[in-house]
Design brief:
With 221 residues, the protein is α+β, with helices and mostly antiparallel strands. Helices cover 31% and strands 18% of the residues. The mean pLDDT is 86.
């Protein structure tokens, strides 16, 4: 009679499986990787948003400074005249310097000439715009304050700007809708707004901008 010999299996025992730590680090990394990616994306998104705020602020100062320097002297006039072409050139300079993605589509620059009216009050003598963003001025529209003294000037209540007599103040408002790089990171990105105001740098003709060049004015339609 031939008896069958019983042999043990050669596979790993349950105890050996429990003691096997090979691949644990890889498993932990696989679980942690999505969290690390989300944190990295959040940090990058936040940094990019803060950088966009700085760029909009720099652009507001640039536009206002350039607008305050506009003007050419004409024969027989001791004051400088400004033109629609010069205003358009200011916006062209802004376009070249904005460093913001799709600013022309997502942003808007509102440039206003704040002056004194005949009654001694504040008056928005003219206003020009650049950009297709659907934003309106938060501080007034062209013609506001032409009569009387009820219009107090432009700017936030704690930063109200007023123009002295015989001159004008260039006031710039910039609005920009920031589009996130990673829209799923949860960074709250409300529209960016900036405000800047400069006195004109020389005596200026305070009448409406001339248009001898017959260019298309950048009206705020």
């Amino acid at each position: 009679m031939v008896s069958a010999k019983r042999t043990r299996g050669t596979g790993p025992s349950r105890r050996n499986i429990l003691r096997d730590v090979r691949g644990v680090a890889l498993t932990e990394f696989a679980f942690a990787l999505p969290i690390l990616l989300v944190m990295a994306a959040f940090g990058l998104e936040l940094a990019n948003y803060v950088l966009a705020i700085k760029r909009v602020g720099d652009l507001a100062v640039l536009v206002t400074d350039n607008a305050s320097r506009m003007g050419t002297r004409s024969a027989g006039l001791s004051v400088q005249q400004i033109s629609e072409a010069e205003i358009n050139d200011v916006f062209v300079g802004a376009q070249l310097q904005d460093n913001l993605p799709d600013f022309e589509r997502n942003g808007r620059i509102i440039l206003s000439s704040l002056q004194r009216n005949a009654d001694g009050g504040q008056w928005i003598a003219w206003q020009r715009c650049y950009g297709a963003g659907t934003f309106s001025s938060a501080y007034g529209v062209e013609g506001q304050g032409e009569r009387g003294t009820s219009f107090e000037g432009m700017g936030p209540p704690n930063q109200r700007v007023q123009s002295p007599a015989g001159t004008s103040v260039m006031v710039t408002e910039i609005y920009y809708t920031y589009e996130p790089i990673f829209p799923v990171t949860g960074v709250e990105t409300s529209p960016i707004t900036e405000f800047a105001a400069f006195n004109t740098r020389a005596s200026r003709d305070l009448s409406a901008p001339r248009n001898a060049e017959r260019v298309e004015p950048s009206l705020c339609d």
